[in-house]
Amino acid sequence: MKDYSNHAPTRADARDVKITDVETCVVKGNFEWNLVRVHTDAGVTGIGESYRGGKVTDIMEYMKRFLIGENPLDVERLFRRMVQETSGHGGTTGKSVTAASGIEIALWDVAGKLLDVPVYQLLGGKYRDEVRIYADCHAGDALVVDDGYHEQGSREAYSPEAYAAEAERVKNMGFTALKFDLDIDSYDNVPDPYNGRISNEALEHKRQVVEAVREAIGYEIDLAFDIHWDYSLDSAKRVARALEPYDLMWLEDVIPPENLDAQREVARSTSTPLAAGENRFRVHEFKELLYDFGVDIITPDPTTCGGLAESKAIANRAEENYIVFSPHNVCGPIGTMACVHLGACIANFGVLEYHALDVDWWDDLVVRDAPLIQDGYIEVPEKPGLGVELDEEVAKEHLHDPGTMFG
Question: Sign of the CA dihedral 67, 71, 75, 77?
Fold first, then answer.
């Protein structure tokens, strides 16, 4: 087994730093936000976030046993060590990589603070001063998320008029790019909830929804829709073709993610741009999507797929194929700001997802004088590290399990 422990310890005294502890907690927002803090003997701490879901923090706590004593500045080596040390537990993919992603982000935060530079500088430098945000929206009361699964609202909540009204509301908040979910159980599961085939009624309803939103916001606003892997190959093609007249920014996750040949078949059948990638891990799992042109836009989740360096490697491969990189992001502000640094340093970056419109305390979770998102953009921080710090008092008010704050 490869040994990614420290075999090159020689460095200047100022950079001879050791990890002393790794702590975790889970904040309950519209999703479970898995937070991690890395402590060092230099008195500097870093914070990171991993994708939502149960037991991710348990894996982070497991990783602590071989991270303590390591130098936090060796970020990419330590990511490989985390993957290698958990490889016997399925650590080359899945939740082990997700856990490593959050720690990797915290290590970049530590490194930036120790070296007195923003994370984007460590990742290669800046292309842009602001990162454009798209708002993930829901029509009416159409979605309730609870404990990792979702319940859709009544059929009335999915009227084209409800979608259009929400689109206008969010446009007026200053966003210039929006996304809605377009998979709707009460329509799509008729007459059969399992086979993924769409009825004429459901297809026409989707078309009417997209048409209503376009009429409400015009064509100067970028518009995307997500259909969450629900459809058979023939139905995915039908949906994509039906939406061609509306000049979408993209249609996301059109078929189940396992079969990349089928994904490519849909891409070949339509002029509607397709996006996918949020449930893939590490650069290796993106190879066929990118080099076989199964997507027009690639959407990895940096807090899932391996952290910031791995995401940048994916973006570099996408750039070889002239494919835009637009990260999936359902994080709190910590993970979101990590993605902002990533967006700053990637040439082929498009837009970053924001998925917390209904969390009115989202901004309060970090120490901040003004909202992070202003007129649909987030300014790239110039402070060392990620440039934001957790407001622990606010975090304590929203812990998933009360009394489980850091320390």
Answer: negative
Global model pTM greater than 0.90: yes
- Inter-residue contact 59 to 23 (CB < 8 Å): no
State the first-to-last Cα distance of the chain, in angstroms, to the nearest integer.
33
The CA–CA distances, whole Å, from 341 to 110, 134, 258, 407 equal 14, 16, 30, 28
CA distance 134 to 281: 23
CB-based contacts of 77, cutoff 8 Å, min separation 6? 4, 6
- CA 209 to CA 163: how far, in whole Å? 7
pLDDT digits (tens, 9 = 90+) for 359-380: 999 999 999 889 999 999 999 9
Token reading at 385 = 């590290």
Report how many helices (DSSP H) and strands (DSSP E) the chain contains, helices first.
Answer: 14, 15
Query: Do the Cβ atoms of 223 and 275 come closer than 8 Å?
Result: no
| Non-local CB neighbours of 261 within 8 Å, separated by 6+ positions | none
Tens of pLDDT, residues 91-148 = 788 999 999 999 999 999 999 999 999 999 999 999 999 999 999 998 866 555 555 5
